[in-house]
Each structure stands twice: as structure tokens, then as C-alpha cells.
Amino acid sequence: MNQKSDKTEEKILEAAKSVFLKKGMEGARMQEIADEAGINKALVHYYFRSKEKLFTAIFTNVITYAFPKISKILLSDSDIITKIEQVIDAYIGVLLKHSYIPGFLMKELNRDPSGLFKIIAKYGFNPEPVIGAIQKEMDEGRIIQMDPRHLIVNIISMCVFPFAARPIVQYVGFRDDPVATQHFLEERAEVLKKFIVNAIVIKQKE
Amino acid sequence: MNQKSDKTEEKILEAAKSVFLKKGMEGARMQEIADEAGINKALVHYYFRSKEKLFTAIFTNVITYAFPKISKILLSDSDIITKIEQVIDAYIGVLLKHSYIPGFLMKELNRDPSGLFKIIAKYGFNPEPVIGAIQKEMDEGRIIQMDPRHLIVNIISMCVFPFAARPIVQYVGFRDDPVATQHFLEERAEVLKKFIVNAIVIKQKE
DNA sequence: GTCTATATCATGATAGAC
DNA sequence: GTCTATCATGATATAGAC
């Protein structure tokens, strides 16, 4: 492999990721990607024939990154509470480091979800075992009875939404102060763990 | 006022709302709006000088609609639990009827939140009284102690996110079955009320 | 592989007839 | 007020020199 080729391709991918995450498929401009990569516009087309193909490459990369091995954690040997706490830490940790991801995904999934579908189908993600594992814990009386799907959606919602809706949270909740907002989001892992555990554990009578 | 003018303007607004909600500012095409209104493209520009102006009209309309009088409910005379239940019913009710709104708002707020800021500033929405009211209930021992902001964000997250992320919920959770997904979303008001009440009420020892 | 120049096309916006 | 025709711009994509 050519050294120059490798470096350029990498630069393009990095620039494309940055631009696509901020602007989305329709808002992004090939010129901007080229500029950010420090090369010519035509060269972007030389490596990735079209904007569509370049976007798909980035989208796939982001999706596979944003779908961490949640199911692996949930299917481990730990008890349900530990699993949930680990999932929350994992989710919030990723979101704190890559805060553009939720907004980007919301944008693109409402535009055209077919890309996501293909990737999920390819990786064969299946929620049934997770649902079954949660149901078992409920049947054994460790946590309250409820539809496991709703529990899963509740947890993911509380993790992801504040990041996806960050501009609103910042403006309405913190008078547009980005530092206070960041601090608020950093607190969320601890807050959520307490909140969810309190919501679902069955308290033993002493 | 001219009758013809009124009807045409109304038709344009209706068409624009439909197209903008589905495609967003950058995805929408003036041609498509004209087609859906059953008129000529030039006529859209005759009524609303630019795409930007037309979008602002729609955006303002949607925002003022999507921000229901949540704070009014929260500041009423009812106890905190009743208030929360009313807010959840109000939120889910609106979202079930206008399911495009969350996706649209997520998209546009991550693109350019300044439009939202102007509108909120104009309407003078202020979260402080709501936060204060919740804090009071906590101090009086009716619900558990936690940062009221986190509680508010938790509630809104669990209401809105499943609608904003509907394509994912449908594909991952329900094998892309829209009927099952719709049913799931309709259940959420009842599920959420139980879940949140269980999470925050302080159980009295008998 | 990398660049400049250009083809091609789509879109927002306007001019001008009726 | 409404239409047809057209402009002006800006974007993707390609051709061809180096």
C-alpha cells in the first residue's frame, strides 16, 4: 500500500466525520470536507466516488461505535442492578466524549433510517435475550414487574436525550451557560444510577 | 382582505408545514411545497419572500405548539404527583397526534438553535418557579431528594425520546412492525406514570 | 495521486406577461 | 394574484494536465 494514499484517505475520513457530524448529510459540503482535510475537492471524489458513498462510510463507523456492547454487559454474570449501572456508565461515558453523535443520529434517522437498518441487520443485533434476562429477574422478585421493553427504553431515553437535546437544556435550564450544562451532563451517570435503582428495586421489609 | 389570498396563503402554510416537518429546512424543496399546495413555485415566493422566512413562520408555529403549558400545570394547586401525571398525559397526548415534531425539532435544534432561542426569549419561559415548587415538595418530605433539574430532564426524556427515536425503536424493538410500535408508544403514558411515581414517592412505614 | 478547469445539474429567486 | 420563462448561484462530479 502507498503511504501517501493511506494518509490522505485517513485525513479525508477524519475531516468527513467532523463535518458530517456537525452538518449532517444534507448540510455538509464536499468543499468543506476537502478544506478541513487540507486537500482538493476533486481528490475527495477520487477516493470516495460520491458524497453518498463517503457518508455511508462515516455513518457505518459512527453507528458501530455508538452501539456499544450493551447487550454483552446485560448478558454477563453480574446481577441486574450491576448490569444496569455498567450500561449507564458506558453510555454516558461515550456521550460525554462524543457529544455530536446523538444529534447526528437523530437527524439522519429521521431523514432516512435505511442505512441504520442495513448495519443492524448485518451485525445481527437482537434484543430478545436481553428482554428475557430482565424478565427472569422480575419473575424471581428482585425488581418490580413491568414490560422489559419499557424499562430498556426508559434507561436509554434518560441517558441519550439530554445530549441529543443539549441546546434546549443549555438555553432553558442554564441561561445558555455551556460550563454549567457540561457539569450537569457529567453528573448524570451518578444521578441516573440512583434514580433507576430506586425505581425498580423491591425493598425488603426489615 | 382578499378571499383568494387568504386561501392560498393558508394552503402554502399547510403544505410547508408538512414538507418541513418531514424533510427539515435543508431537505425541503420549494418545488415540493408548491406541488403539495397545488400552486406554482413563484407564488410561494410571492407570499413569503424567501425559504428562510417561510421556514421561520413554520418553526415558530411548531415551537409554540410543542411547548404546551407545562409550567402552568406544574404551578397549579394540585399535589406534585398529580401534576407530574398531568404533564405526562399532556406530553404523550401531543406526541401521539403529531409524531413528526420531535424528530423535526431535534434536527433543527442541532442545526441552528437560534430560532428556538428567540421564540423562548419572546415568550419568557422561565424554569425557576417550577424548580422551586419541586424543591419545596422535596423539603416537605413528600418525594425523594434529588436535583429538580435532573428530575425534570428525566421525565421529559422518557416522554419525548421514544418518539424522536421511533425508527430505531421500531426496527430494533419490534422487527420493523409499525402497528406494534404504535401500540407500545400509546402505552407509555400509563407505564411512565407508574414508573416515575414509584421512583420518587417516599413510602410511609405502616 | 494531486491539482486546475469545467461540465452538469438542481435549486432559490426574480422578471414580466396576463 | 397567478402563471411561464429565465437567471444566478452553488453543488456534485468528471476530464485532463502534471
Structural summary, described in words:
The structure is a homodimer of 206-residue chains. By secondary structure, chain A is an all-alpha fold. Chain A folds into two domains: 3-55, Homeodomain-like (Arc Repressor Mutant, subunit A); 67-200, Tetracycline Repressor, domain 2. Chain A contains twelve helices and no strands. Chain A is globular, with a radius of gyration of 20 Å. The N and C termini of chain A lie far apart (69 Å). At the A-B interface, helix 1, helix 7, helix 8, helix 10 and helix 11 of A face helix 1, helix 7, helix 8, helix 10 and helix 11 of B. Chain A binds a DNA duplex (18 and 18 nucleotides) through helix 1 and helix 3.
Question: What keywords describe this structure?
Answer:
homodimer; 206 residues; mainly alpha; Arc Repressor Mutant, subunit A; Tetracycline Repressor, domain 2; 2 domains; 79% helix; globular; DNA-binding
